[in-house]
UniProtKB/TrEMBL annotation:
Protein name: Alcohol dehydrogenase
Domain Alcohol dehydrogenase iron-type/glycerol dehydrogenase GldA per the UniProt entry, residue ranges: 13-181
Cofactor(s) of this protein: Fe cation
Pfam families: ADH_Fe_C, Fe-ADH
Similarity comment: Belongs to the iron-containing alcohol dehydrogenase family.
Organism annotation: Idiomarina zobellii
CDD domains for this protein: Fe-ADH
């Protein structure tokens, strides 16, 4: 009998892209029979001016019946999900619309699967612990970005455990994702930089993943090329619509790639930095990026050559030089967008390294995707190199 090799490509059920796509939101919400939507966003996005035109377009569809929830901090904490669910119930909402970066989208995704579940939120953490989602969900990213609009994971900070924890379930995949570059134009440069490098890490790690597929690999490579060309432009000229559109699309493509192939050791080593020392997701990934790539290169030289070409290497480059080319280009990009290079710059004590290494080694969900295995000592050596 032939071995079965069926793969399911996970994404939002419906995907709208391109400049002006946010104007379609009211129609999409109506098609999902939303009459009293809850808009989940945060204060930074509220102050950026992207919400007002959307609310205006809502006036015809949902007169007086839209509820706003914006009490979300970056790297959202678990109690916010409880609070947001309470608002949903109190306002008798019948659908959720996330407008924001990964923090707002992950909160909205967690709330959407928590509605109508009488268990404690903790019961939902881990893989496939979620029951059926009962409320419709639309996600509009305002950063480029996390790709959260098409992934089956929501990441929350558990302050007591000083850990970032994930809810992983296909029930988190939104009904509709609207990737509208106009929503990212107001991103301040530091957010453009951190979220843009996160998208690049998604592209590279998904390409190197042990679980990459024929469908994910082209998405990863193309996203790398687009980010390599447009990140600095978007950082230096926030109103450059072409750069914003390229970044928004690349972030989506990287999200589709890693949502199916997974990410690896960069994310695993970044997690404890977020949980314990509150570095933002994008910045913690950026700091670990080049050293983890230096480690990975030994096991996948041919793949590194592909990455080098995607990042603009001349076609005369050979496999033996691909590792150096990739590491140097990634380091240069992070430097150009002013992301600190060392753990020391974040006041992380050197003595914390053994504990960070133990914690990262426990992120087996991601380490199993990585092309080269890491022991606790290997991980500690990488943190030390970045110190
Ligand atoms: N679920 C996933 O697949 C996934 C993937 C990667 C990261 N994440 C999570 O996403 C979070 C990080 O998300 P992020 O990088 O998008 O940042 P974010 O959502 O935390 O936003 C960062 C800051 O930028 C502001 N901001 C966002 N969009 C803006 C805009 N258009 N104009 C002005 N200000 C704006 C926000 O108000 C906030 O202050 C982390 O919690 C991380 O764990 C999730
Ligand atoms: Fe990420």
């Amino acid at each position: 009998m032939t071995e079965t090799r069926v793969q399911v490509f996970k994404t939002a059920r419906r995907l709208l892209t391109g400049y002006g796509a946010s104007a379609q939101l009211a129609a999409e919400a109506e098609a999902l029979m939303m009459k009293r939507p809850l808009i989940v966003t945060d204060k930074g996005v509220m102050g950026s001016g992207v919400i007002e035109p959307i609310l205006e377009s809502f006036q015809h569809a949902f007169t007086d019946s839209t509820t706003l929830y914006s009490d979300i901090s970056a790297e959202p904490e678990t109690h916010v999900v409880e609070d947001c669910r309470h608002r949903f119930m109190a306002s008798k909402c019948d659908g959720i619309i996330a407008i924001g970066g990964g923090s707002a989208m992950d909160t909205a995704k967690a709330v959407a699967v928590y509605i109508g579940d009488d268990r404690k939120l903790e019961a939902l953490f881990g893989e496939d612990q979620v029951r059926t989602r009962k409320t419709p969900l639309i996600c509009l990213p305002t950063t480029a970005g996390t790709g959260s609009e098409v992934t089956n994971i929501a990441i929350l900070s558990d302050v007591n455990a000083q850990l970032k924890k994930g809810i992983v379930s296909n029930q988190l995949l939104p009904d509709v994702a609207i990737v509208a570059p106009e929503l990212t134009v107001s991103c301040p440069p530091a957010v453009t930089a951190a979220s843009g490098v996160d998208a690049l890490v998604h592209a590279v790690e998904s390409y190197l993943s042990n679980f990459s597929t024929e469908l994910t690999r082209p998405l990863s490579l193309r996203a790398m090329t687009m980010i390599n060309k447009s990140l600095l432009q978007a950082y230096e000229n926030p109103k450059d619509m072409n750069a914003r559109e390229q970044m928004a699309t690349a972030s989506l493509m990287a999200g589709l790639a890693f949502g199916n192939a997974g990410v690896g050791a960069v994310h695993a080593l970044a997690y404890p930095l977020g949980g314990r020392f509150h570095l933002s997701h994008g910045v913690s990934n950026a700091v670990m990026f080049t050293e983890v790539m230096r480690w990975n290169y030994a096991n996948c030289r041919a793949l590194f050559l592909d990455i080098a070409y995607a990042l603009g290497a001349p076609n005369t480059l050979v496999k033996e030089d691909a590792g150096d080319f990739v590491v140097e280009r990634l380091a240069q990009l992070c430097e150009q967008v002013n992301i600190p290079k060392t753990l020391r710059e974040f006041d992380i004590p050197r003595e914390a390294i053994p504990e960070l290494a133990e914690s990262a080694h426990g992120v087996t969900r991601l380490l199993r995707n990585n092309p080269r295995e890491l022991s606790v000592d290997d991980i500690a050596a990488i943190y030390t190199a970045v110190y």
